[in-house]
């Protein structure tokens, strides 16, 4: 990505920053001069990511915890004194047929995908107002169409996208911009990680999805990260409330 001065000494929070799109976003922000706090549940993965760049700090936290939002914001402010960007990237999902709906699994999905971003935005509001900062939420192109087996995951991300538009209006008077990206099938390890699928099943799904993408391949983190930075940058002064689908045309296939 082209180097700019837009991120020099800015402060970003990236939840779920130890792998996949979150990790790639944190590394690019750090490379462009930002100080980045990444969060996640696994300390070993967080430490591996932080070891790559000196501008990355870590906070081991479960986004499903009720007080995680305040803990995250306080950690960033105590370290750097400000917050310029929040990237709500942490996500939870699991394939579930109708007969297997379990209330605790559904509740966990919504806790991570809806409640946690809400609490983090609430906790970071004052700091973002002071910096005239931005929020970038990570949705999913899965929510563009019917999603059997992934209905609750898609529904929770659709809720986050609705919050994106609502927060954009509510926070516009404070100078805070709120946008989202909705990635399609991306090589991020989410199928075997967040979704809990076996390697064999993940491979089958990856091959199937690749054949469905009009542009002929699954996405890479490098396809998504530049848009996260653009939406979050101070150079973006007049764009808010938008959900940008980045999926190689995948969601248009039906």
Give a short overview:
The chain has 254 residues and is of the alpha/beta class. The protein is built from seven helices and seven strands; from the N terminus they run E-H-E-H-E-H-E-H-E-H-E-H-H-E. It starts with 10 loop residues before the first strand and ends in an 8-residue tail after the last strand.
Structure description:
The chain contains 7 helices and 7 strands. The protein has a 7-stranded parallel β-sheet, sandwiched between helices. It has 254 residues and is α/β, with parallel strands linked by helices.
Mean pLDDT: 92
Main β-sheet, spatial strand arrangement: 3-2-1-4-5-6-7
Low-confidence stretches: none
Number of H- or I-type helical stretches = 7
Q: Name the beta content range.
A: 5-15%
The profile of the biggest β sheet is: 7 strands, parallel
Can you write the helix and strand succession as a string? EHEHEHEHEHEHHE
User: C-alpha Rg, in Å?
Assistant: 17 Å
Compute the number of strand runs.
7
Shape: globular
